[in-house]
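Try this one yourself first.
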């Protein structure tokens, strides 16, 4: 069963790709928490979706019964190299492999390491804004938010930033469109795999100081990092590092374009921006991940059998009134905000520091250079959903600055 049939019963037949749900999922989650906190569906291979903070945290912590070998919200075949070894990343590995492999990546995403890219990100954002500021309008989804993450990821990997549009097309194909179209997913997945094989071959001849060369020269337990792990984590950088941050930046700008009081306050109090970014992350969390039951278990008392999929809806968890006061309202100076936008447990996003920095700079520079803006047409905004939710087309207008 797929999205071609309308949803009549969200408790036993939910559809995360339903157009109205993608546009505004919050009322559905709100109702489900009260009537059926762990709904089920047979669509897209079948899954369960805990909607409470406690339920999502419980599932994320159940390493004994829930595996990360398949984290897509729809089933997808595993990929293997020519030697038959599974290509895996830190988000698709279980213990005991996960922790040492994750530890390899962390030096590139520590707060100190990320700060090296702040000035570069600032100049990138200013350059992008200068390109459209005299037009009085921009699609802030495609011409701004979409442009930032691939170029920063390119800098970390040491690859050509001018390929940003290609990178984003590949990621949309593999992650967004590919979630519901296996042929598209495989087509773009193969492009990404072939691209990194080429980049790896280059670094084996001419190593540099960037992440690809680092992984090629690193060791695990005194041995070179297995090539399937190198390849999997490079692919993860591209796929996870672009779509998610693009969505988060876009959601923040959408909110500010449609809530002038919050926009005006951040312009007047720019020091509040880091706190506001945390609230945008909570309120508009982009990512839903999946686990597959390796043995029978339960989530919040609901039975889950071996082989069944569980969706970790971090966006739903972050709107739970049991944890957050007035959760449906965006409060840009929220004091207590222990959200799980970056996940929970051992698979919490390793790139969270980078994402925060990109969001702070992207939103901050936009507000500094374009302090007044609004949605051109609220109905023209389009949203992607499923694995990663965020605005794709976000037309906004603003006064043209006078010289």
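Now uncover the answer:
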């Amino acid at each position: 069963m797929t999205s071609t049939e309308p949803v009549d019963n969200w408790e036993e037949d939910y559809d995360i790709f339903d157009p109205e749900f993608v546009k505004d999922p919050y009322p559905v989650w709100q109702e489900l928490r009260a009537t059926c906190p762990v709904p089920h569906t047979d669509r897209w291979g079948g899954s369960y979706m805990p909607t409470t903070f406690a339920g999502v945290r419980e599932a994320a912590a159940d390493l004994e019964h829930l595996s990360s070998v398949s984290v897509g919200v729809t089933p997808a075949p595993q990929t293997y190299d020519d030697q038959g070894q599974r290509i895996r990343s830190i988000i698709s590995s279980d213990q005991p492999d996960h922790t040492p492999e994750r530890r390899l990546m962390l030096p590139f995403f520590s707060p100190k390491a990320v700060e090296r890219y702040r000035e570069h990100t600032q100049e990138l954002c200013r350059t992008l804004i200068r390109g459209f500021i005299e037009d009085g309008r921009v699609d802030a989804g495609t011409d701004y938010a979409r442009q930032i993450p691939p170029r920063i990821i390119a800098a970390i990997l040491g690859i050509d930033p001018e390929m940003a549009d290609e990178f984003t097309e590949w990621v949309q194909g593999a992650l967004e469109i590919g979630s519901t179209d296996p042929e598209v997913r495989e087509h773009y997945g193969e492009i990404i795999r072939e691209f990194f094989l080429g980049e790896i071959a280059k670094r084996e001849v001419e190593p540099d100081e960037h992440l690809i060369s680092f992984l090629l020269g690193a060791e695990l337990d005194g041995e070179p990092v297995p090539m399937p792990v190198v390849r999997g984590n490079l692919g993860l950088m591209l796929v996870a590092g672009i779509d998610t941050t693009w969505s988060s930046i876009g959601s923040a700008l959408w909110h500010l374009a449609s809530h002038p009081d919050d926009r005006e306050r951040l312009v007047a109090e720019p020091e509040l921006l880091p706190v506001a970014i945390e609230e945008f992350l909570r309120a508009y969390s982009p990512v839903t991940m999946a686990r597959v039951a390796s043995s029978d278990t339960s989530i919040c008392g609901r039975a889950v059998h071996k082989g069944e999929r569980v969706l970790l809806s971090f966006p739903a968890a972050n709107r739970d009134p049991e944890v957050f006061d007035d959760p449906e309202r965006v409060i840009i100076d929220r004091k207590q905000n222990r959200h799980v936008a970056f996940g929970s447990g051992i698979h919490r996003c390793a790139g969270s520091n980078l994402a925060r920095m990109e969001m702070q700079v992207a939103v901050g520079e936009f507000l500094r250079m374009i302090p007044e803006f609004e949605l051109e047409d609220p109905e023209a905004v389009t949203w992607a959903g499923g694995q990663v939710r965020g605005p794709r087309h976000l037309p906004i207008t603003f006064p043209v600055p006078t010289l």
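Discussion: The mean pLDDT is 95. The chain is about 45% helix and 10% strand.
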